[in-house]
Design a protein that fits this description.
The chain has one domain (about 5-45). The protein contains two helices and no strands. It has helices at about 5-15, 35-45.
Length: about 55
Amino acid sequence: MSVFLDHVEKTLAQAVPSASFVRYDKGDASSVVGGKMLEDIQTECQAVVAAYGH
């Protein structure tokens, strides 16, 4: 879990009550997103918040 992303999610949820949130973890910050995970993100998400090292 990420305290930073928890805070971002809480703040966005207050600003946009109809929003839902999904978290993806690619496991390695140096790898690129691809394949099924990228397809899922493109299908399920209208916006993305990316965080590194939080």
